[in-house]
Specification:
With 321 residues, the chain is of the alpha+beta class. It has a domain at 33-244 and 251-260. The longest helix has 31 residues, at 2-32. The radius of gyration is 23 Å and the shape is globular. The protein contains four helices and 15 strands.
Length: 321
């Protein structure tokens, strides 16, 4: 009987110790959290959005890929020359063009590498302005370095943009098309931060574009699913190899005034495996973490990330630039 009681006491003690150690581990993770996963996701997706914008700008202005007979509006894109970009159109007759970035510093960013665009089924008559047309986007050592602090992100891999609504930025700007809808999907996209740490992203988003007062606005929603979660704009592994998900709570809005890297509105929840809390990201804030009125002329400072564990809350503010 004594042996049984002793054995039972040991089991209870072991369970108590295990729970205590687990609690300490979770508390330590909370205390040491610095929001890195949220900064990485915002940086990579902001630069990805900027690249997708260049893609839309250039392909809408390439008549044979767009699907109109002729008429180039500007040297590179619909909106004008894109800083640091040259377009190689030697393969345009087969449905392929290449965007080459020369390392010029523009708006605190140095962009290098290339992006190759290919209209799928071009030989059978598909053109980018047609609803259902799919554009293959290949990132070839596409690297963006922020001049202010030297932080960099490099994308390698493939994404696909599907023209859901039909029409392009050309129709949106010059022919008064009211809205334009695309989906952007890509799996196992390699994302390297600061030259050494690599994450893997699966980006699944729907973009709706509008044009008013000479400004393009874009609303981004999450359309991915993983591990029972929906409305995911992204999931995969962080720079430390931990599984994560990024769920859109409120659609993310950016415009051409502030740039794709600086959303003026939106909210996402990022969950990282092994952490017993969620990183809540609120975009479009001032330097104190307060939401900025999207009707104002000033662009937001950055975004606020906040996390809570056992009734304790911490936060950090990240600048976009």
């Amino acid at each position: 009987m004594k042996t049984k009681k002793l054995f039972g006491s040991l089991i209870i003690a072991a369970i108590t110790l295990t729970l205590g150690l687990t609690g300490c581990k979770k508390q330590k993770a909370f205390n040491e959290e610095n929001g890195q996963s949220s900064e990485d996701a915002r940086t990579a997706q902001g630069e990805n959005d900027a690249a997708v914008s260049d893609v839309n700008d250039v392909i809408s202005n390439t008549p044979n890929l767009h699907g109109r007979a002729s008429g180039v509006q500007n040297t590179n894109g619909i909106l004008g020359n894109i800083c640091g970009l040259t377009t190689d159109t030697t393969g345009a007759y087969t449905g392929t063009i290449k965007l080459n970035y020369n390392g010029t510093v523009c708006n605190n960013r140095k962009r290098e590498g290339s992006i190759r665009l290919t209209v799928q089924d071009y030989a059978t008559g598909k053109r980018w302005k047609q609803a259902g047309c799919i554009l293959k986007v290949e990132y070839l050592a596409y690297r963006v370095t922020r001049s202010s602090d030297g932080k960099s992100v490099e994308l390698n891999g493939v994404q696909y943009i599907t023209n859901i609504s039909g029409g392009t930025w050309f129709e949106l700007i010059f022919l008064n098309q009211p809205t334009l809808a695309h989906s952007v999907t890509g799996y196992d996209l390699s994302v390297k931060f600061d030259g050494d740490k690599t994450a893997t992203y699966n980006i699944n988003r729907k973009f709706t574009y509008t044009f008013a007062n000479s400004i393009i606005s874009c609303t981004g929603e999450g359309i991915g699913s993983n591990n029972g979660l929906n409305n995911l704009e992204n999931y995969g592994t962080t720079r430390n190899g931990d599984a994560f998900t990024s769920e859109v709570i409120t659609p993310v809005l950016w415009n051409t005034t502030c740039g794709a890297q600086a959303p003026v509105k939106g909210e996402v929840n990022i969950k990282v495996a092994g952490k017993d809390f969620t990183l809540n990201c609120l975009f479009g804030t001032d330097a104190s973490g307060n939401s900025v009125d999207v009707g104002s002329n000033a662009c937001p400072y950055g975004f606020k990330v906040q996390w809570t564990y056992k009734q304790k809350t911490k936060k950090k503010i990240f600048g976009y630039h």
